[in-house]
Structures are given as structure tokens and as C-alpha cells.
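Regression check, alpha-D-galactopyranose case 721:
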Amino acid sequence: MLHFEETTGTFYLENDEITYAFTVENGLPEHLWFGARIPRDDLRYTRWISGTSCDAQLPGKTSENHIAAELPTYGRGDFREPMLGVRDENGNALLALTYKGYRVIPEPRLAGLPSTFGGETLEVTFEDAEKGLRAVLLYTLFADTAALTRSMRLENIGGHTLTLERAFSFAFDLPAGDYEALTLTGSWAAECAPERAPLRHGILTVNSKRVTSSATQNPFLAVMTAGADEAHGDVYGVNLVYSSSYRLLAETAQHGRVRVAGGINDFGFTWELRPGDTFQTPEAVIAYSGEGLGHLSRIFHDTYRAHLIPARFATMHRPVVINNWEATYFHFDRDKLFAIIDAAAGTGIDTFVLDDGWFGKRDDDHSGLGDWFVNTKKLVGGLDPIIEHAHEKGMKFGLWFEPEMVNPDSDLYRAHPDWAIHAPGYPVTEARNQLVLDLTRDEVRDYIVKSVNDILDTHAIDYVKWDCNRYVTEMYSSSLPAERQGEFAHRYALGLYDLFERIVAAHPGIFFEGCSSGGARFDPAILAYFPQIWTSDDTDAAMRTRIQWGTSFCYPLSAMSCHASVCPNHTTRRVTPWATRARIAHLGATGYELDTSVMSAEDLAAVPGQVADYHAMEDLVLSGDFYRLADPYGDRQFAVALVAKDGSRAHVTVMQLLRVFNCPPLRLTVPALTPDALYRVESSMGETLTLSGKTLSEVGLIAPVHRMADFESLTYTVTRL
Ligand code: GLA
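Current build output:
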């Protein structure tokens, strides 16, 4: 898998699907190839497309600008975006790193940061003797997916303080070509909208300056050959295992070559690296598909299920939740919660989640955050009677927290106003009437750990929803010296992961769901702790088809928490059929978000059947292959297929979005079935057919969308006979 060829100084990272190779010449690492697996002996030939070959035709071959870099730095003629920026005490920011050696190790834990697991790691070391800097490139390759990870460790091995001005996690160059980028952009209630743009000369960047990964731009970037679609084209995808401010870029430089790079956002970033200090960058997951975006997504899904989400949760049955947020918002008492539980009991819903409003003085979003003690005025007898009631009814109990936050109107703030992030003398920006606690401070984290763990350790809690409803606006910590203020955003991330270790990892029996005003912190670092994340506060089935479609570009369905709610929908006012709302919510970790105690008898009576339908397809949600078939951004229909890895079963969901007159039936090819086997096809409209796998993948299912009204839906269950 990881191989070093001494004679040529070439590193090969290869598995059944991919080759990633670079060579070291005159101490400099040069990228050779990332793509489909090709024979080792042919790899040095790729230099003719990657870079150096150009130099043969160019006068004066000295400049690094013409090589495909593996560790690009500034100072030797490469004018493209560097991976690293380091200034010494003389103000000198030039770098001249040379190769020192390598070793192969079992995959390490990255100090203070979440990371993937289950791979084999190559460490390649470079040093700049003048600066006293060691840069170690880490590559982890998995045997079973077309993905690898990269990160970098920096060590000050000299006698003087160095200032990091940029510390990206990876960089690699692609041969000249005609490329497009796909990014996931969005906002509250409209997360992860895919956006395509041709790469032009210059730099395309996605980034966050919010100290969260953000709904504005997910930390994901795909660069693909122009015209790539779901099934065709070379696609290179990167996704950062990081939850704070980040930057990913694709730079098209001279001669049309493209550099892809990224990591911690260098906006406002500096880091003091004192003699003996080490700095570890977050991990980037890098995947290659030669069969378009669909395959790229399936690579990410497989990688995250096998190598990122905690193994005990990755493919476990997901709780089918009833959450009271849209049912009550802040206005509930014990009897109301009992009524919701009572109505849900026996329907197959198996977990009651008590959302915001149970603690402190919290009757609206103006007060209470930070005071993690039960409001016994609102909940007579505290949480225990509700927990016991849920348990008596055969349901588990979940609880909402927003540990990183504080309202100015709270006991915590009154006692420790300085614990909220602020810069003396400057205005403090409130968002949703709240401030962010300074997680860079030990005493603040200790308070959070103690107050949250006190609740978790004294109650029979099975499930936690961890929310984060705003971003950081004033990057400043009163506990950091002037020369370390540029470290704030990364130190916040380290503080957050410390909380996750001490609260989440310390409670391995509790199932945690991530949330950030919906999907504003939907990133792989969260998935390293929380097996699922609330995908969006927009629970309208029509909008959810878009949000879930976009999120699926790099996150598995099992990571997306999806609830059916009431109509008119609270966010969009749209009315959609009950069956459709449930079917769209089944394309993830499903649940309900409404007042079961006031549902119509008819809707409530449908719930047991819906939950049974979900359970029948849940294994496909947890471990199947996912195919995007009809794009909801086209405004006509939405359709997706979930296919068992062994080709024995499939589940297809179709939703009519906007019906047009004379619309033709929709052909939905179901790939990856056994061609010469027969399959029974049962549609939710009552039709049953027997078709061969070949017919299903060539002709496809013919969905009668011409007979479906707006927002009506249809499912197919496809079973090998
Ligand atoms: C956020 C979440 C919601 C809910 C509210 C509670 O908006 O996304 O699901 O938990 O907070 O305040």
C-alpha cells in the first residue's frame, strides 16, 4: 500500500482504486500523480504532464514555479499559493525545506484534533536548517476506499521562536486541463446547495471566518474535469476534518495547471511556535473518482462510515425520534411533554428528545443559556418524571444542550461576564441574543464540562442533541497575550474538541447528535464524535430534497438527521402530503418534530406504517450505496436510489416538485444490481412487476410522474428473487 522506491526516491500510495505518488529530487518533493491506479513503472512518465517536463522546453529550468509541488512554499520561484508560511525573528519568511527521511507507522492520533482511523500512515520529513523548522507531511491511506488523508506537523527544532502565518493541511497539483469546481454553499434553512463554476486563471476559494465550519460554505471542494456529471468524469474531492475557520482553494496558474490546497484559514491567523513546540494541522480527506460525482460521494460515504464515525455508532440502528421543538418551542410543561410521549408511544417512535427550554430561566431565546440546571418551576419534579415516563412507555430519553453559549441574561454571565468572547473597549455583537463562551480558557471549559456532565451523570439520559446557534464575531481572548491573539480561531477548535473528549467520549453509552441552527457545523470533525447531525431547521419536504441532495455530496445519509413535521411548514408555509414528508425524512436518520398529541387521528394512525417502512429500508440508509437520480434543483422532480452493496435490494424515492403539463414519465435507472437476476419491484402506488437487473439498470423504472400532483411521492422496493 505504502511503498518507497529507493532508486528513484519515489513514494507510492496505492490501493485497488487509486495511486497517489510523489518523488523527491534534490531534496524537493514533486507531485507525480493522483488518480486511477497505474503501474509504478509508468509513474515517472507522468512528470511529462505534471510539471517538470515543461521546464525542458522552457529556458533556465530552475524555478519551482514549473514543478508540481507536494509541499509548496514561498521563496524559490513558486508564485502559486503556498502550503506554509513561517516568519523567523528577523522577519524572514522565505523557506528552503529539504527532504530528511520517512517512516511508515500505524495511523496516529493527531494531537488535540479528531481524525480518521483504520489506515496506514506515511510520514515524510523535511527541514529548513536556517529557520530550525521541521515539517512532517502525514499521509494516511485506507485499503478499502479511494481516499487518503493528509495533514502536516510542524516542529520548532531551532533555538528561536517562529511565527506561523499559514499552516495548510495539504496541497497537490493537477495537470493542465479544463476543470470545474463544485462547492456546497448555503445559509440557515438552505444548507449545502451545490454550485458549479468553471475554473478560470486565478483562485477559487471556499472559506469560513466564523470560527465554525459554517452553513455559508461547507468545508468541501470538488475539482472535476469540465462536464463531469453523476456518472462520468475525473473528480478530486477534499473535505476538512475541522470545525473552525478554514480555507480551501483551487488555483489555476500559468500553463493551466491547477493547485488544490487548504486547511486552517490564514485570515487573522498566526501561531507562535517556540523552541520545542509542535503544531499539528487538521486532517483533510482527499478522494478521487474516475466515474463522476456519484462515485465520489459513495467514496466519501464509505470512508466516513468505516473510518471516521465512531465504530460503535456507524451502522447501528438509529433512534426514531420525536423531538418537541416544532411542537412547543419554549412553551411546555410536564403535562404537555407527557401528552406528546403518550401519543407517540406504541407507534414505533422510540426516543423522546426534549429540546431547548428545560433549564435556567429559558422561556424564550433571550435568557438562560449557560445555566445548565433544570428549571423546576417549568418542569415540576425536574427531568426525572419525564425520563421515567418515557422509559415506562418504552421510549428512550434525549436532551438538548448548547454548551458553548451564554445569554447576557443568565446567572453564568452575571457571575463571569469576562467568560464571553469580547475585546475590551469594542462593541460585542449579539446573535440570537447570545454570546459565545471563550473555549480557549481552561476555567470556562471546566465549567461547561462540570455543568453538562452533572446533568448527564445524574439522569438516565440516552441521547444528547448538542447545538451551536451562532458563530464568533470578535476573535479575541482576554487570556491570550498580544502575540498569540492570532491563535484564537484554532484554539477555539482545540477547546471544542477538548469538550467533546471530556463530555462526548466520556459517555460512550450516550448517542450524540450535532446541530448548529440546523446544518451550520456539518463537517467531518463533528462526525468523528457525533454519528449524526441535524441537517437543517427547514423541515419542508420540498426544500429538504434540495438540502439532503447537496449534503449527500460528501456526507452519508446515516449522518443526516431528518424529521417529518407539520404543515403548513413552519419555515416555508408549504403544504405537502404526510406520506411525502415521512418518505423524505426516511432518507437519513429519521424522526418526527411535531405535537403528536394534537395530530389528526388519520396522520397518527399512519405513523406505525411509516416507521415500519423506515425499518425495512434502514440498513440501506446505514450502509447502502446512494445514487442521485433526479436533481431537485431542476424544480421538476427529485429521485434517489439506495442500493444494497451486494445488489440484492434497492429502495427508490421519487417526489414530484412542480408538475408541468404533458410531462413525460421519469426513467430512473437503478445501477449496481445483478444484471441477469430477476427482481420483484413493488411501488407504493400498489403496482408489482418482475424485471431483470439488466432492464432496471438500462431501461430503468418508469415513474408515472405525469399522474402525480405537486409534492406527491412514490417509493419502489426492489428485491432480488
Ligand atoms: C436550533 C436548532 C433547532 C432547535 C433550536 C432550539 O435552531 O437547529 O433544532 O434545537 O435551536 O433553540
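Comparison notes: The pocket of alpha-D-galactopyranose is lined by residues 325, 355-356, 400, 467, 469, 515, 517-518, 534, 537 (CB under 6 Å). The first strand starts at residue 2 and ends at 5. No diff flagged against the previous build.
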